[in-house]
Design brief:
2 domains; BirA Bifunctional Protein, domain 2; two-stranded antiparallel sheet; five-stranded antiparallel beta sheet; 350 residues; single chain; alpha+beta
Length: 350
Amino acid sequence: MTIFSLKHEATTIRQLKKVVKYNSNNKAGLNNSNNPRLISVSSNCGYCSNINDENEYNQLVDNFILSVDANSQLSKNSRQKYLYEHSVISFSNDDDERLGMANALKLAIKTAKKYDPNFEKTPYMIWPQIDSGKLHFHIVRGYHDETGNYHRQSNSGLKRQSAAQKIEKEHKLTYTGKNDPKNYVWKTDVNNKKKKIYVPNLSDDNKKIVKNKAIDYDCKIDEFGNIKYPLKKKENKLISDINNNKNIHTNNKKIVNNKINVIFEKITELEKPIKYSVFKKVQNLFTDQVQIDNEYKESLINENKNEVSNLQRKIKKDWKKRNNTHHKLVDKKLFNEMKINVISNEEKKY
């Protein structure tokens, strides 16, 4: 899962200094010595081997701000309003653990380059942060390169989404958006042809990354850059996935059953005897109209019954899919619980 969102754009060096300070300093009520805001930094304007060395870090910050300012001075287009952008990139917990800090950082830069191929030509700073309990990358980059060329993107929201989708596919990350089969539904058009329609799951795919409130520090990164999220957090996610899977297929079953009930009502109406007027009854004595009407009515009944059978098969197929997913999730949950029990027993020994 890749989330790539714009936090803000701004026009002045003063605002740029503020956003750098925002990403560098602890927030009251959120950060502390066990949960620092500043854990690392990466930039193409210099190198900081020790973020605890205030002089070294400030030198990098100064180089970055001077580069953004100097590059913008080279521009001859007064209509170029914005100076920089501040965005956030995040991957799923499972992706974080598989990638580790170093590879997650490389992938964040690669995502930014997918969004704008000239990304590395412009000055940038990237701060990996875990103060929300979830690894994410804050990226601040100037819009001008060393020759004064301007690289602000039009339709930036769509381009960010496209970049995230491509990275998910290329690196086999957790699928979201158009990559996720769950975000598609089958629709029947006016010509009775089925078509797959994309329905963005906005509530899941665009969750806010950082919450400005005190929360538990539950993301661990060791000295080798390996990332671990707590087993309890994984358990809660698995329980949520199990419930969501059940709800999705239960709702699907309700929708299909409603369609079946409507068809049964049609069949009931068709099975009723046809009422003819007196004149029509007399006329029918000399024609085959009654037989023709009954045969036509029977064909309609059979068509509707076939449609019911198809819908019932659809329910069974969907329910089978639900059960397969359910068993996989339950197995994962049981395996996770075993790990929790092992750790709990080891802690009791001490």
